[in-house]
Amino acid sequence: MLELLFLLLPFAAASGWYVAYCTLSHSNSRKKHQCNLEYLRGLNYLLNEQSDKAVDTFIKILEVDTETVETHLALGVLFRRRGEIDRAIRLHQNLIARPNLAHPQKLQALLALGRDYYCAGLLDRAERLFFEVIHSDDKEYARIALRYLLEIYQQQKRWELAIKQAKKIAKWDGQVVKNIAHYHCEMALNLLKNSTGKQDVIKLLDQALKYDVNCVRANLIKGKLAVEAEEWEKAIQIYQAIKKQDPDYITETLVPLNQCYLKRQSGSIDLLSYLHETLSEHAQTPIFLAIVKLIQEQDNHKALQFLTQQLQDRPSLHGLYHLVDLHLAQENCSEADKTNLTSLKNLIKKLMENKPLYRCLSCGFNSKILDWLCPACRNWSSIKPL
Q1: What's the half-sphere exposure (Cβ side, CA atoms, 13 Å) at 275?
Q2: Any idea of the CA torsion for 166, 135, 138, 111, to the nearest 10 degrees?
Q3: Which of 142, 151, 240, 267 could be a cystine partner for 261, CB 3.0 to 4.6 Å?
């Protein structure tokens, strides 16, 4: 009988283990099923832009399965988007602290924490984390980190470091080359503020044009330097080159060109000829208004005829404003007409005050001044004159 008991002991132990295993497997399977259902529910909330409910759902998942790394990352993104940066930072820090975290997941967490610090304005901490990701063996994450690092250097106006990082990005994204041109322009403007020799400024501007031959900004700065040095012919050549670089910026050259041409003999005639030629190539309101101004100096009636003809093809508030001005300047304008026209002129002026002068072609941001870097979408040279 005792021998039989000894023989039954292994069977009893195995049976106990099997029952426990089945019970545990069933429990884990049930938990996993519940977790999957909650996860799908959370995704559904996300797709329906119900972020609050999505956060609550993902928190429940974490309570069920604290090893769900992807859920941690998704929850961190939600916290960041809701502006709860502190919670996102703590979550990603705890994730990185896990000793058994796989290398790809750690890179994801480092990148996520770097974004958290970036959004919080802790740029020095973000910079260190992005560098760690860049020096990893994952090219995809390294490229993302490089772009964030470039944005940090732009914000900090560390242009030489920005150039260094932009050159790396340019190997797979040629659009960044125009950024490098702007960085050289920024460095040139810094030298001008510090009253450094203009030769060094010109070298930087030439470098900008080397990276981007269509860098209008570089030529606008060079043209301004030429005007200040009273090198009128040189300034005219520089400003006229902008027409080939980007016709949208012709309007930015009209005032300085007028100044340069007036310094030449028969300057008004030459300028008028240039403006007519430019108008035939690029029909823009500021160009024909500049022509009107030159014609008006000789004959107000001819200027009125020319402007009326242009407005029939290209109506605009600015053109209408100048048309009223020309009518007021007519010798045969009665006092009653002058009163009515002045009221109309003031009304048009109020309408123009509400109109933006520049607009970003990338995001639609409106501005009264020419910003080379759009403050909304952070794109260079996307803001153009209207």
Answers
A1: 25
A2: -80
A3: 267
One-letter amino acid for residue 356 of the chain: P
pLDDT at 257 > cutoff 90: yes
Q: What angle, rounded to 10 degrees, do the helices at 139-155 and 103-120 form?
A: 10
Cα gap 338→335, rounded to integer Å: 5
DSSP, collapsed to helix, strand or coil, labels residue 297 as coil
Residues 6+ apart with CB under 8 A from 111: 129, 130, 133, 141, 144, 145
Q: How far apart, in whole angstroms, are the C-alpha atoms of residue 50 and residue 52? A: 6
Side-chain-side CA neighbours of residue 363 (13 Å):
12
State how far the Cα of 94 lies from the Cα of 306, in Å rounded to an integer: 72
Confidence check: pLDDT of 344 > 60: yes
CA 326 to chain centroid: 41
The HSE-up count of residue 7 (CA atoms within 13 Å, CB side) is 4
Q: Where are the beta strands (DSSP E) in the chain?
A: 358-360, 366-367, 383-385
Q: Helix %, strand %, coil % for the chain, to 5?
A: 75, 5, 20
Do residues 152 and 350 lie in contact, with contact meaning Cβ atoms separated by under 8 Å? no
Q: 128-173: per-residue pLDDT in tens?
A: 999 999 988 888 999 999 999 999 999 999 999 999 999 999 999 9
> What does the mean pLDDT of the chain come to?
84
| List of residues 6+ apart from 350 with CB closer than 8 A | none
pLDDT 10s digits, 36-88: 666 666 666 655 666 666 656 655 555 434 456 777 788 888 888 888 899 88
Closest among 150, 156, 152 to 170, alpha carbons compared: 150
* Structural tokens at position 139: 């090219």
- The position carrying tokens 């069977």 is 11
The span from the CA of 354 to the CA of 358, in Å, is 12
Prediction pTM value: 0.78
3-state secondary structure of 197: coil
